[in-house]
């Protein structure tokens, strides 16, 4: 424990001023987000604020990506709203605890590395879609509720004032770093606009207009639900979806921050930290959460690189709730809207627009589909899943076309089929069409030096080929079969009989660097 805190606060590791100031900037940006997501989920704003504090603190200390910010998120809020409406908030707390257990299990089983399966076009689509969603979410602040309780767009002076302060915030954030980087430009922008509004007596929407953020310390609370199988069946679907959505968003955010900072986080460690954080927040009356890409980018852009900034952000949020709520409620929403617009602009991968004509059409299609699903359905997990599936299908189709054979007859009258490309479900049919059992000689050799068997469909394809030759009284030999392919055939020896050539050498397969090499 002592070593952990020594590494955490080692002075030479970080710029303490930048970490503290970036943490305070994030804390200010967390307030309206947590309140808004609480309202989406149908729970008290304080539940969202407590969630942001607990999850942010625990993941900052235990997480696998220093500088990444976690808290209550819209992705989780959208999932839980149906549970809150149908069964009440106590079932939500129980579902959050189960969500955390699932996430810890994923981390313990080291499944976090599966994020590597997300192709680059999917990442582009995810990031671009999220940027658009962040920007679109801010337009709600340009609406007011009239006397009849109907939401309508602002007009006249209130609209002009709102737009003016949003633009002023964006200008300060954009151009202040050209003058000085001594303090985060986002924090300067928020303070500048707040002071103008407060001392100028300007009437515009503030954080306090959303909801009061005043409260005490979060209290331990056991979910008041029956401990039986019926409760488990009610919360399990929601918990599984929340766990999946939370981990996908967290691991993708981790990957994005890795690229920006040119460092490497630890996905499995982050999975465990997210799980511990959600279990804790479930027992303290929280709504569950995950990594927040917008706040993480605010933190990194403001200079936050270590765990200190995340700790400052979460503790600062608690201080706001306990002691400074009256002042934080004075912060104009225009300043926070301008900040989030700049986050959206910075999040969007503008470089992806330049590669449309330079990459394969299917990569562009995947990018666009993932972006559209993210924007219109607000379901990040579904968007990523669809993108991965399309990419996998395209990959399979492209590899299926690469199976080919070079044929020749040697001086002994034996016909050789030298195979190229992977043999799997998509290429199995094309593989079978390469052979001519009726016209071939008594013996043939299928050479797999430049090929390998990937799955059961590949085994079945070989079985069908050998069966066709066997019916004609001819013999098939297999040569240069890789170790992994040989293992597959040996496991299937009850349904297939394979003859190996005597000169068939053994091969080694190089696996992940962190796994051992087997032969």
From TrEMBL:
<dbReference type="InterPro" id="IPR011547">
    <property type="entry name" value="SLC26A/SulP_dom"/>
</dbReference>
<keyword id="KW-0472">Membrane</keyword>
<keyword id="KW-1133">Transmembrane helix</keyword>
<feature type="transmembrane region" description="Helical">
    <location>
        <begin position="364"/>
        <end position="397"/>
    </location>
</feature>
<feature type="transmembrane region" description="Helical">
    <location>
        <begin position="159"/>
        <end position="176"/>
    </location>
</feature>
<dbReference type="InterPro" id="IPR052706">
    <property type="entry name" value="Membrane-Transporter-like"/>
</dbReference>
<feature type="transmembrane region" description="Helical">
    <location>
        <begin position="121"/>
        <end position="139"/>
    </location>
</feature>
<feature type="transmembrane region" description="Helical">
    <location>
        <begin position="232"/>
        <end position="257"/>
    </location>
</feature>
<feature type="transmembrane region" description="Helical">
    <location>
        <begin position="68"/>
        <end position="85"/>
    </location>
</feature>
<dbReference type="Pfam" id="PF00916">
    <property type="entry name" value="Sulfate_transp"/>
</dbReference>
<dbReference type="InterPro" id="IPR002645">
    <property type="entry name" value="STAS_dom"/>
</dbReference>
<feature type="domain" description="STAS">
    <location>
        <begin position="404"/>
        <end position="492"/>
    </location>
</feature>
<feature type="transmembrane region" description="Helical">
    <location>
        <begin position="183"/>
        <end position="202"/>
    </location>
</feature>
<dbReference type="GO" id="GO:0016020">
    <property type="term" value="C:membrane"/>
</dbReference>
<feature type="transmembrane region" description="Helical">
    <location>
        <begin position="91"/>
        <end position="109"/>
    </location>
</feature>
<protein>
    <submittedName>
        <fullName>SulP family inorganic anion transporter</fullName>
    </submittedName>
</protein>
<dbReference type="Pfam" id="PF01740">
    <property type="entry name" value="STAS"/>
</dbReference>
<keyword id="KW-0812">Transmembrane</keyword>
<dbReference type="InterPro" id="IPR036513">
    <property type="entry name" value="STAS_dom_sf"/>
</dbReference>
<feature type="transmembrane region" description="Helical">
    <location>
        <begin position="308"/>
        <end position="328"/>
    </location>
</feature>
<feature type="transmembrane region" description="Helical">
    <location>
        <begin position="334"/>
        <end position="352"/>
    </location>
</feature>
């Amino acid at each position: 424990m002592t070593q952990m805190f020594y590494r955490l606060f080692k002075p030479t590791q970080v710029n303490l001023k930048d970490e503290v100031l970036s943490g305070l900037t994030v804390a200010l940006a967390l307030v309206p987000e947590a309140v808004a997501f609480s309202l989406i989920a149908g729970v008290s704003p304080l539940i969202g604020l407590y969630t942001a504090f607990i999850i942010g603190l625990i993941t900052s200390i235990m997480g696998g990506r220093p500088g990444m910010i976690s808290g209550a998120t819209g992705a989780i809020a959208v999932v839980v709203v149906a549970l809150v409406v149908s069964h009440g908030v106590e079932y939500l707390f129980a579902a959050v605890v189960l969500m955390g257990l699932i996430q810890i299990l994923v981390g313990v089983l080291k499944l976090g590395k599966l994020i590597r399966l997300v192709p680059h076009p999917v990442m582009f689509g995810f990031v671009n879609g999220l940027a658009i969603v962040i920007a679109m979410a801010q337009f709600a602040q340009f609406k007011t509720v009239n006397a009849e309780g109907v939401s309508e767009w602002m007009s006249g002076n209130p609209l002009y004032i709102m737009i003016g302060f949003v633009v002023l915030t964006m200008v300060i954030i954009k151009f202040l770093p050209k003058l000085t980087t001594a303090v985060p430009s986002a924090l300067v922008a928020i303070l500048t606009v707040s002071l103008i509004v407060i001392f100028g007596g300007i009437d515009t929407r503030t954080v306090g207009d959303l909801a009061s953020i005043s409260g005490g310390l979060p209290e331990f609370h056991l979910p008041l639900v029956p401990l039986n199988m019926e409760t488990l069946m009610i919360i399990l679907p929601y918990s599984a979806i929340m766990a999946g959505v939370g981990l996908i968003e967290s691991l993708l955010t981790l990957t994005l921050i890795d690229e920006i900072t040119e460092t490497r986080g630890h996905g499995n460690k982050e999975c465990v930290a997210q799980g511990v954080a959600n279990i804790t927040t479930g027992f303290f009356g929280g709504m569950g959460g995950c990594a927040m890409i917008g706040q993480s980018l605010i933190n990194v852009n403001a200079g936050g690189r270590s765990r200190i900034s995340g700790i400052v952000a979460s503790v600062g949020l608690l201080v706001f709730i306990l002691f400074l709520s009256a002042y934080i409620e004075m912060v104009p929403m225009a300043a926070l809207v301008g900040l989030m617009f700049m986050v959206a602009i910075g999040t969007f991968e503008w470089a992806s627009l330049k590669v449309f004509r330079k990459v394969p059409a299917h990569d562009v299609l995947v990018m666009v589909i993932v972006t559209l699903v993210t924007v219109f359905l607000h379901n990040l997990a579904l968007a990523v899943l669809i993108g991965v599936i399309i990419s996998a299908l395209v990959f399979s189709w492209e590899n299926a076309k690469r199976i080919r054979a070079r044929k020749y007859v040697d001086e002994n009258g034996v016909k050789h089929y030298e195979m190229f490309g992977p043999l799997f479900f998509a290429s199995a049919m094309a593989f079978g069409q390469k052979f001519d059992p009726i016209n071939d000689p008594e013996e043939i050799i299928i050479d797999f030096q430049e090929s390998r068997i990937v799955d059961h469909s590949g085994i079945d394809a070989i079985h069908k080929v050998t069966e066709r030759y066997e019916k004609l009284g001819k013999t098939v030999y297999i040569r240069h079969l890789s170790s992994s392919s040989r293992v597959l055939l040996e496991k299937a020896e009850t349904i297939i009989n394979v003859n190996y050539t005597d000169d068939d050498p053994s091969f080694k397969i190089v696996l992940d660097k962190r796994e051992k090499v087997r032969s």
